[in-house]
Design a protein that fits this description.
- The structure is a single chain.
- The chain has 450 residues and is an alpha+beta fold.
- The chain has helices at 14-33, 47-50, 55-60, 74-85, 103-113, 157-172, 184-193, 200-207, 215-224, 229-239, 245-256, 260-275, 339-348, 369-384, 398-407, 418-423, and strands spanning 37-38, 44-46, 64-66, 94-98, 121-130, 142-151, 177-183, 282-284, 298-304, 313-317, 332-338, 362-364, 389-391, 412-415, 425-430, 436-440.
- The protein has 2 domains: 14-42 and 99-348, Bira Bifunctional Protein, Domain 2 (BirA Bifunctional Protein, domain 2, 2-Layer Sandwich), CATH 3.30.930.10; 359-446, Anticodon-binding domain (Rossmann fold, 3-Layer(aba) Sandwich).
- 40% of the residues lie in helices and 18% in strands.
- The protein is elongated, with a radius of gyration of 28 Å.
């Protein structure tokens, strides 16, 4: 049988892992700089923890885990499986699921431990998540997220901090980005204008697809969800508000400014832009809806410029997320980095530093038992100085050992043959430049390998 891996998953070789770690470490260092602490949660959660938290479409993307040790009779098991296939939960078949994102498990953690935490609680989390999505470029079924969240504070300074984290990380990664922002309160105001805030899901889910489908298709979905033509006309006015940030706020105020919750959302956006001095790469986008049920205020999405790619980050405020777990009144706000998409962007734009590809710095040739003993002793001394070194695993011809060094992109080789052994020196060759010199073994530890 030809070996395969599940669709939407990947193996990572050494080169890829180093590049991914470069991204991870850059993000983690900025998180730590801003006072966030690390957290990890299990790969799986109880199904009831996740169900109903991501909107109707998100629930369909949960990877449910079958119970082990099923003891039910065959007929009952068949009936239970049929219910699961219909999209219904059945505790006899499945009680757990792989986590869909890091936010809901984080909310569950806070709800379970709120008595021991100091608020505002600032955490970051870097772990894989799973979604039963259709694999495509930049979209995988297993992928990593890097999240930063703050709970226990209503202050809009938290949004300022998270926006600045985005700006700092992408500056360090040399990715030119646009940060799109909106506010769910503005969408709630629009929903109220269209007949009631209960319509926000029927409005936000379709318009959140506008970066993938046409306005005509969105209109069709709005109509299917029960919106009347007059209401769809209002939504169309809202969707096509254009101009600069200040102009957009003026136009949306004239449309929904009489609605109290909408006015609050407008004021919050104004605060963010004023505090940040309205930077050019932060843009108000009223089409941004982030159709997840738990967002209540600011919503954010990050797009890379000069490359065809979906969002590479996003987040927002969720003022009562822990209320889902019977711990009310803990406001929160968070952001997420899409590491896999960031990786693809950096690959396409060739943004990874070339130094990441250097693994072993020095290869000692293996030219005999006595020679290799001296070489191994010197290699261990270099390793104590954090110089990455290895020795060829067996005595072999020069050509074979040279090819090994070239395949692994090892820049230096050190040769200790019978002559070098007798004279207590070694031959150092830079494969990249061709430069070669003889150095006393006693001076090897002070040699500059650059």
């Amino acid at each position: 049988m030809k070996p395969t891996i599940p669709q939407g998953t990947r193996d990572f070789n050494a080169e890829t892992i180093r590049k991914r770690n470069y991204i991870f470490n850059t993000i983690k260092n900025v998180f730590e700089l801003y006072g966030f602490q690390p957290l990890e949660t299990p790969a799986m959660e109880n199904l009831e923890t996740l169900t109903g938290k991501y909107g109707e479409e998100g629930d369909q993307l949960l990877f449910k885990i079958l119970n082990n040790g099923l003891e039910k009779k065959q007929e009952q098991a068949k009936f239970d499986f049929e219910k699961v296939l219909e999209g219904k939960n059945n505790a006899g078949i499945t009680e757990r699921a792989l986590k869909y994102d890091l936010t809901i498990p984080f909310a569950r953690y806070v709800a379970m431990n709120h008595g021991q935490l100091s608020f505002p609680f600032k955490r970051y989390q870097v772990q894989p998540v799973w979604r039963a999505d259709r694999p495509q470029k930049g979209r995988y079924r297993e992928f990593y997220q890097c999240d930063a969240d703050i709970v226990g504070s209503n202050s809009l300074l938290n949004e300022i901090e998270l926006l600045n984290i985005y700006l700092a990380v992408f500056k360090k990664l040399n990715i030119d980005v646009q940060l799109k922002i909106n506010n769910r309160k503005i969408l709630s105001g629009l929903a109220e204008l269209c007949g009631g805030t209960s319509k926000i899901t029927d409005i936000s889910v379709p318009i959140d697809k506008l970066d993938k489908v046409s306005w005509e298709k969105v209109k069709d979905e709005l109509s299917q969800r029960g919106l009347m033509s007059q209401q769809i006309d209002l939504i169309e006015q809202y969707i096509f508000i254009d101009g600069g940030n200040v102009s957009k706020l003026e136009k949306v105020r004239s449309l929904i400014g009489e609605i109290e919750i909408g006015r609050q959302g407008i004021q919050e956006l104004e605060f963010l832009l004023t505090f940040l001095n309205n930077p050019s790469n932060i843009v108000i986008d009223f089409k941004l809806a982030r159709g997840l049920n738990y967002y209540t205020g600011t919503i954010i999405e990050v797009k890379a410029q000069n490359v065809q790619m979906g969002s590479i980050g996003g987040g927002g405020r969720y003022d009562d997320l822990t209320g889902l777990f019977d711990v009310p009144n803990l406001p929160g706000v968070g952001i997420s980095f899409g590491v896999d998409r960031i990786y693809d962007v950096m690959e396409e734009l060739k943004l990874f530093p070339s130094a990441l590809q250097t693994t072993t710095q020095i290869l000692f040739f293996n030219l005999g038992e006595a020679e290799s003993k001296i070489a191994y002793n010197l290699m261990q001394q270099l390793r104590e100085q954090n110089i990455k070194s290895e020795i060829y695993h067996e005595q072999a011809k020069f050509d074979k050992q040279f090819k090994y060094a070239e395949r692994k992109n090892i820049p230096y080789i050190i040769i200790i043959g019978s002559k070098e052994l007798e004279e207590n020196n070694c031959t150092i060759k830079n494969i990249q430049t061709g430069r070669q010199e003889i150095v006393a073994q006693s001076q090897l530890l002070t040699y500059s390998f650059e």
